[in-house]
Design goal:
This protein is mainly alpha-helical. The protein has a domain at 100-247 and 254-275: Leucine-rich Repeat Variant, CATH 1.25.10. Helix content is 53%, strand content 0%. The chain contains twelve helices and no strands.
């Protein structure tokens, strides 16, 4: 009897300990048995009394096969403009970017600025969204945030990545200047965009980039002659231990792709030659 009591106590203690480690996984597993229906997701996204419900509903819709339908995209735009909750606005920006038109860059760009939103999450999502849309009108906004030393380093790094499909001299100079930022993430993102734009490999060596840029212009050569095409990065889902059992759960995972507005990825840019300053 005593042994059984000890065994039971130890078993309960072990389960309580493990419960703290795997509660989230089991909660996700439980959700898989009763997934949210499209109608429920739409109702959640429209719930004006609960920002959490709106945020989750928007996320569910955006990741669904029908999330790019005109009514939903219109709703994303409305929430980007009007919703007062920063997490809802961030979710709406992320959703809109997935199904954006070129002109949506102008709608998103104001939220990239710190005077547009005090929420770092909103500014981060705006920067990521602009990686997926090619619209030269937002280049100034991206460069302003990249060069802002008071801005969150993640926002600045995302802006550096977003500039990787704009072959302009001011973009090269802005990216080269950001190589002296204190944060390595900014240095690496800027270096990668410089490589995409020019085909050159100088890593994070700011002096080498400036010397190459000066020599190229002194020789009246096109610095974008060896430019490669840009693909926006996407989140890679890490397989969980129970995924093999959740066979009914459909994952609409994205692959890196060319931003909307870049019609032909084999071309150096969508600009005319005259728009690239020599």
């Amino acid at each position: 009897m005593i042994e059984r009591t000890i065994f039971t106590t130890c078993t309960l203690s072990l389960l309580l300990f493990l419960g703290g480690c795997v509660t989230d996984d089991f909660n996700d597993l439980a959700k898989g048995f009763a997934p949210v229906t499209p109608n429920q997701a739409a109702m959640m996204a429209s719930d004006q009394h609960s920002p959490d419900e709106r945020r989750e509903g928007i996320t569910l819709l955006a990741n669904s096969p029908f999330g790019g339908g005109p009514p939903y995209v219109s709703m994303y735009r409305d929430y980007v403009i009007e919703d007062g909750d920063p997490l809802v606005r961030a979710a709406a920006i992320k959703a809109l970017a997935r199904y954006a038109e070129v002109t949506d860059a102008e709608l998103i760009a104001p939220w990239l600025r710190s005077d547009g939103s005090e929420s770092i999450q909103v500014r981060r999502e705006a920067a990521v969204a602009l990686q997926r849309i090619h619209n030269p009108i937002v280049v100034g906004d991206l460069l302003r945030s990249l060069g802002d030393e008071n801005e969150d380093s993640t926002v600045r790094a995302f802006c550096a990545t977003a500039l990787g499909h704009y072959p302009e001299d001011r973009v090269l100079l802005g990216l080269i200047s950001s190589l002296d930022a204190n944060e390595l993430t900014i240095n690496l993102a800027s270096s990668e965009s410089l490589h995409i734009l020019t085909g050159q490999v100088f890593g994070t060596d700011q002096y080498a980039w400036f010397e190459w840029y000066r020599a190229t212009h002194d020789a009246n050569n096109n610095p974008f002659e060896a430019m490669t095409f840009f693909q926006y990065p996407t989140f890679k889902y890490e397989t969980r231990w129970y995924d093999r059992f959740v066979f009914w759960e459909h994952r609409n995972e994205e692959k890196p792709d060319v931003p909307v507005g870049l019609e032909d990825p084999t071309r150096r840019s969508t600009y005319d030659d005259s728009s690239v300053s020599q």
